[in-house]
Amino acid sequence: MKRAYKRHSMIALAIFLFSILMLQGCVYQDPRVDAAVEDKPFYSWFNKLVSQIEKDPIYKRIPIDTTTQSNEFLVLLHDTYRHRVTKEEFSQRINTQYPDHQYETAFIVARLP
């Protein structure tokens, strides 16, 4: 039961992140968000990450609940994926913003190229 809930939470998060971003296309959009959404290798990597998260029984959902949080996380993740931000800086920023999610941050960082 707990695993099914976690899986649905991660799927919901992934859908939330990208559906919000796609729906905002008609509204002013940060070009960095557009770049992340349109980056096919990043999108493929992100989907693999979500699959790995779903399989990890320890991983807890990071509370990214608003459009602003979603956009900020996506841009930071994309910048880190593209080596514009170091993994250390990514870790520091996420651990500062979400202090009870060090495991989750390390999980993501370990899978960044």
Q: Which characteristics define this entry?
A:
113 residues, mainly alpha, 6 helices, 73% helix, 0% strand, globular
Beta-strand content: under 5%
Globally, the shape reads: globular
Count of structural domains: 1
Number of strands: 0
Radius of gyration: 14 Å
* Topology order in helix (H) and strand (E) letters: HHHHHH
Share of helical residues: over 70%
Secondary structure class reads: mainly alpha
> Overall pLDDT, averaged?
86
Give the termini distance in whole angstroms.
Answer: 33 Å
Low-confidence stretches: none
Give the biggest sheet: none
Number of helices: 6
What is the oligomeric state here? single chain
Protein name: Lipoprotein
Explain how this protein is built.
This is Lipoprotein. The protein is mainly alpha-helical and 113 residues long. The protein has one domain (2-111). 73% of the residues lie in helices and 0% in strands. The protein has helices spanning 2-23, 31-38, 40-55, 67-81, 87-97, 102-111. α1 (2-23) packs antiparallel against α3 (40-55), α1 (2-23) packs across α4 and α5 (87-97) runs antiparallel to α6 (102-111). The protein is globular, with a radius of gyration of 14 Å. The model has no long low-confidence stretch (mean pLDDT 86).
